[in-house]
Structure formats: C-alpha cells, structure tokens
Design a protein that fits this description.
Strand content of chain A: under 5%
Distance between the termini of chain A: 39 Å
Structural class of chain B: mainly alpha
Helix content of chain B: over 70%
Oligomer: heterodimer
Number of helices of chain B: 7
Low-confidence stretches of chain B: none
Number of domains of chain A: 1
Largest sheet of chain A: none
Helix content of chain A: 55-70%
Strand content of chain B: under 5%
Shape of chain B: globular
Order of helices and strands of chain A: HHHHHHHHHHH
Low-confidence stretches of chain A: none
Shape of chain A: globular
C-alpha cells in the first residue's frame, strides 16, 4: 500500500517540477547567450494562461484530436509513477518495468503523430512523418541501452537495476555502462525535441518536428501537450541520472532517506539541465537528413554496450 | 585489484574502438585527425596501465614513445598534409554513414564471436581488451576499403597499426621495448612512404580521390 502511495506522490512531484525544469533550461540558455531571459518559473504562468483560454478546434478534426492531449499527459504521468525518481524500493514489483515504460512513452508519441495527421494541415502531416522517422530509430535505442544495464542486474525492473548498481559500484566504470549512458543521452535529446535534432524555442522553422505536430492545438489542449512534453523531458533525465548514477536515491521509506533522495534527485536533474543548456548553446541544429546518422551512431553505441556486457564475461 | 585493472583496460580499449567508429560517422578531415590523436593517447594509457598493474616498468617507456610518435608527431604531419590539400570533406564514401555504422556494429559482434575461444583460454585480466582490439582491426580495415580519399585511407592504416599494438598489449602483457621500437619505426616509415604517395597522387590528378586513379589519361 505504501508503495502505491509513494508512486502517486512521485508522479505528482514530477508533474509539479517538470515546468520548472524546462524554465530553468530556457533561463540558463538565455544567460549563456547573453540575454536576460524569462525567470525559471515562467512556464507556470504560461500554463495558467493557456488553461484560461478558449480551445479552438478545426471543423475537420475528429475525436482523436481532442483525446490526444489527455493520452499524452496521462501516459507521461503514468510513466512518472513507474520510474525511480526519489525512491527505489528493494521490492521488485513495487516499481516499473523497462518494457512498460518504453511502450507507454511510445503510446503518447503515437497519438500525437495521429493528431498531427488528423486536422489535415500540411504542417501537421510533415511533423508526424518526421516524428515517426525519428522515433523509429530512438525507441529501439532506448530499450537497448537500458537492456545493457538490465543484463547485468538480471532483471528488467528498474529498482533491481538501481539496487544492483549501488551494490557493485565498480560496474559503473565499465564500458557497457558508459556507452549505454552516452547513447541514452543522445536519444533523450532526440525524443524530447531538443537541439541538435529539433529546436525547442521556435514555432517558425520549416524543419521543426514537435512544434509542427502541435501547431493546431490551442488553449487547455496545448497546455496539456506542453506539460506532457516537459514531463517527458524530466522522465528521460531522471532515467539517465538514476539508472546510471544511482547513488543517493532512497531505498527505504524512512524520512531521512527520502530527504536525501529528493535533494540528490534535484541536484542530478540540475546538472543534466546545465549539460543540455551548454550543449544547446554550442551546437547548431543538424540538417534533417543527417539526424538518422546521429541516431544510428547512438544505436551502435547501445549495441556495443549490450555486446560488452553480454559477450565479455 | 584485478577487477579495477581489467575494468580500466576494457574502458581504454572501448575508447579506442569508439574513436575508430567516429571516423565512420564524421565527414571532416580535422575530426579524423583528432580521433586518431585521441586513440593514440588512449593506447599509451592502456600500455602504461598494463605496465603499472603487470609490474613491467619497461612499458612506461613504450607508452612515452607511443605518445611522442603517434600522439604528437604523426598527427602534426597529418595536419600538414591537410593544410596542403585544403579541408576536403569525405563527401561520398562507397557506403553511406548509416550503413557504415551498422556494418561497424556487426563487425564488432563478429569480433566478439571470433575472440570468444581465445578469451576462454586466456587467464589474463586484460582479456576483455582482446575482442575490442580485434573489432578495431576490422573497423579500420573497413575504413580503408570504403573511403575514397587517400588521406582517410592512411588514417585507417594508422588505426590498424594501433589495433595491432593494442592486441599485443592486451594479449601478451606488452611486447619488449626493442620489438615495440622496431614496430613503431616500421609504422612511421610506412606512413612517410604513404605520405609521399599521397602527395604524388595530388600532384598528378589534382585530387586525393582514389577513384581518379582509374583514369588512364589526365
């Protein structure tokens, strides 16, 4: 029962924190580029504004268009309750499984692509086709890079992976571990629509991917989609942080462990957010036709990680 | 102690393999030269690690020679070549980047399968480096056969040489200083001969694209 409650609490904390993470990255990027930038809590104002507005829906749109924002946000919240954020209980059934998480995230993306096609606007179709091109390459890489860890832990349950890595710190220096981390980080950038794959700060580029799909959304629907996207970014960063560098995460329900777990979680997220902001300031967006090259490079990294854990024993 | 040792060796060997794969991914010559320099430094680091944990101080000297020659001198010569030819990108290799990367993944798998009996027979803590060195061997041969620019092929050859040095270091705890010196000097001679060839190709054909070599008249 307590495991159930903590899962829900984790999901609520994650949903509350996600806009701040996006705002923090935006603020840091602005600072690095010599602008003053909006304060880190700006996304909360934007969400409040969007929730207060009227939703305009195209006449040609079907029920799918209206259902999609709920699916996107719902799957993101469900995944947030499944992955280890602050707490990774030793009980193997208390917390999520690799396959459940990967496919729940894919479900949201799938519906978003359908909604992009639904209104019949040329931009939506373009965005959907590009998103599917990217996702077809990223999804196997996510699974493969986590499998590299799962092979060592002997289980696809996230809490098992975390406890196993804490028990054997030498493992974290192994090539399998580092290659899988690099590959998951590249995939995180692609999946969450960051540079060098997609530009998160513009609606007006011909090469946009995520923004092209959600171009028809407005009002509360747009707010849900944006919130879901922010939550997805938080989930990916949390996976990268907690699966590969799990130290500090709470393994019991005692208050002191939870406080330490929450503090280290925030610090890890902040470090990864700084890494993303610096990277986005330094690199330019890749041409769309070169994106598959980057993604197949990350796939090969994940493949090498699996090989070096599976075959070299 | 042995666990740390084998972990470090396999980490360094994976790094070397990665620099080989970077050549398949990137298209610009400066990136190739940087990748080669990193690879040579990693090779020196792996050699020094084996010297430290294996208790063979001679390997430190080997590492110093490796850094001086492959980590500093040859990259400088490569940069000089690049200045002379201009920054000509490897625009159209025989295989596109995605396919080359996937083929590289398969080659690594093949190397693991091939090195498996060897790894089972070996008791050394460095045995984790063997399949990675074999993989680097295949990847650099693959670079040589699929790239069109002569200078990229030279870099492929130099990486092949690094792979053999890594194989020797991981498989036998390093070869004696004298043998290593001989091999390194051989590699240097080979490199200089190839450099002269590349200059001649450039002079005759105004390009270092080896496809031009099939033209009878120029």
């Amino acid at each position: 029962m307590s495991g159930f409650m903590t899962s829900i609490a984790q999901a609520i904390v994650a949903a509350g924190l996600a806009p701040l993470l996006v705002g923090f990255i935006r603020w840091l990027k602005a600072r690095l580029q010599g602008r003053r930038g909006a304060p880190p809590w700006q996304p909360y104002y934007e969400l409040r504004k969007l929730f207060g507005k009227e939703a305009v829906v195209s006449h040609t749109a079907s029920w799918l268009f209206k259902a999609t924002p709920f699916v996107v946000f719902g799957t993101a919240v469900a995944v947030a309750s499944l992955v280890p954020l602050v707490l990774a209980p030793p009980d193997p059934f208390a917390i999520g499984d690799l396959f459940a998480v990967v496919y729940l995230l894919l479900l949201g993306t799938f519906f978003l692509a359908l909604a992009g096609l639904d209104t019949g606007s040329p931009f939506g179709g373009m965005g959907a086709s590009r998103e599917m091109t990217v996702v077809a390459l990223t999804e196997p890489t996510v699974a493969l890079s986590i499998v590299a860890l799962a092979l060592k832990a002997g289980s696809t349950s996230f809490s098992q992976i975390v406890t196993r890595t804490i028990a054997e710190p030498g493992m974290a220096l192994g090539p399998g571990h580092l290659l899988a981390f690099a590959s998951l980080f590249i995939v995180t950038l692609a999946e969450t629509g960051r540079l060098p794959v997609d530009n998160p700060s513009t609606h007006l580029e011909l090469t946009m991917i995520h923004e092209a799909m959600v171009l028809e959304y407005s009002g509360p629907y747009l707010a849900l989609v944006e919130w879901g996207a922010a939550l997805k970014l938080l989930i990916f960063l949390a996976l990268a942080a907690n699966l590969f560098i799990p130290w500090g995460i709470a393994t019991t329900l005692s208050p002191s462990a939870l406080i330490v777990g929450a503090a280290t979680f925030v610090v890890k997220l902040a470090i990864l957010a700084v890494a993303i902001a610096v990277l986005e300031t330094r690199v330019a967006k890749l041409r769309l036709f070169r994106v598959p090259e980057l993604l197949s490079a990350s796939f090969v990294l994940a493949l090498l990680a699996v090989m070096s854990t599976f075959l070299a024993r | 102690m042995d666990a740390v040792f084998s972990q470090l060796v396999s980490l360094g060997s994976s790094g070397m393999l990665l620099t080989g794969i970077i050549v398949l991914w990137r298209k610009s010559l400066p990136a190739y030269i940087t990748a080669y320099r990193w690879q040579s430094w990693l090779l020196a680091a792996v050699t020094a690690t084996i010297g430290y944990f294996g208790g063979d101080p001679q390997l430190y000297w080997v590492a110093v020679v490796l850094v001086a020659l492959k980590g500093v001198a040859i990259p400088m010569l490569l940069r000089a070549m690049q200045r002379r030819f201009g920054a000509s990108a490897e625009t159209s290799p025989y295989l596109n980047t995605e396919t080359s990367l996937l083929v590289a993944g398969l080659l690594v798998l093949f190397a693991y399968v091939l090195a498996r009996p060897w790894m089972m027979a070996s008791e050394l803590p460095t045995r984790q480096g063997l399949p990675l060195a074999t993989a680097l061997l295949f990847v650099s041969l693959f670079i040589i056969v699929t790239r069109k620019k002569a200078i990229t092929q030279v870099i492929g050859f130099l990486m092949l040489e690094n792979a053999i040095a890594l194989l020797a270091a991981a498989g036998t705890y390093g070869v004696p200083l004298l043998v290593e010196l001989g091999v390194v000097l051989d590699a240097l001679m080979g490199f200089l001969v190839m450099q002269i060839f590349v200059y001649h190709i450039h002079e005759t054909f105004d390009s270092i694209d080896v496809e031009q070599l099939t033209r009878l008249k120029h």
